[in-house]
Amino acid sequence: MHKSMFQRLARLSIASLVLVSVGVSAQAQSQASSADGSLADLLDTVRSQKEQEAERNQQRVQAFINKVDQREAMLSKAQADLAAAETRQSRLQDAYGANEKQIGELQSELDQRAGDFGEVFGVVRQVAGDLRSTLNSSLTSLEAPGRGNFLDDMADSQSLPPIEDVEQLWTVMLDEMVASGEVSRFSHAYVTPDGETEQGRIVRVGTFNATTGGQYLRYNGDTDELSVLARQPNSPWPGYADNLAGAQTGSDGTVSGVVDPSQGAILGLLIQKPSLVERIQQGGLVGYIVIAVGIIGLIIALERLFKLVRTEASMRRQRKDLDSPSKRNPLGRVLAAYHDNRTTDVESLQLKLDQAILADVPGLERGLSTIRVLSAVAPLLGLLGTVVGMIATFQAITLFGTGDPKLMADGISQALVTTVLGLVVAVPLVLIHSMLAGRSRRLIQMLEQQSTGLVAAHAETARA
Asked: A Gene Ontology biological process annotation (predicted)?
């Protein structure tokens, strides 16, 4: 092998010398054609250059031969490195195969052991998600903000959570259960209906509702803030909030309060419930007329009741002193007529007493007919409001259809409210009229009884 390589190198050197000599000859000829020297100088120059070129070529060949040995050493080293790498590759392949087998066995063991925990992991994630939603909308988060931050990672985790997170989940659930049955007081900021933020003492009733200063609050879980209801519920609900605000911490007594299990939905419905003034306003003009009729009838009834009670008291006092008649009451005037006509016959005395009674009857019955008329007019006005309200309802249906019931609510409200107002006014007026009429008849009967008794006593005296 070394001999063949040497022969190839020798051939290559000879070919190089031939090429160099040819090049030198061509250069010499070129110089001879261009220079003015003699041929002898040219020949000496060619020989000199040829010798120098031959010496340089010999040096190159020797350097090349020296590098061949060096390359053989490098080749031997590369072959040794290749053999070592192949040996290492074989060893690594064996180790890789063993590791693959071991990994398969460990994976099978892991799948077998994790099979029972797969269902538990799903339940833990579901419970964490549900508890996260509960805490985000719970009033108790105001007192312990940030306690459910770890639930985000647990609910979205794709691996089994550590036992510390599971224990923390259990603890937070117990805290929420306990807080849902407590009435707590704490200081927190809240937003007033004017949009201003104030700091106040909050009374929390479990996870249901919160109050401050006798006002009900609404909790917004998205913004994590409390706000006073723009409109508080009607009586008696504000009183329950006052009871909670004024209750002493740690006292053994009990107070009445409000629990809204819908977390504000029921209070929202109570807020939407119209007040008494708003109900009256729904009745419109007819409703105001009905109320005016009721007020007029009530004023007349109160005046008549006061008058009749006062007259009855005067007549009772007069019955105890028949010999001293007073013209300030009907019975006294009847007795005065008797004393003025004691010397007349029985028939004339009877007529005089009847005349005195008839003179006081209009005063005792005054206003009763007006009350009776008003009690009959009130339901008729209510019926009128009903008709007006139904007309407004049908007009709304004609213009807008029946798609939105709110468009018909005004007419229906007017119809119902006026009907209610008519009945509310008429029923008391009827009862009051019946009571006043009975009292008036009782006074008239008292006058007639006294008149009859006086006439009988006068007849017996005349006969004697």
From this structure: protein import
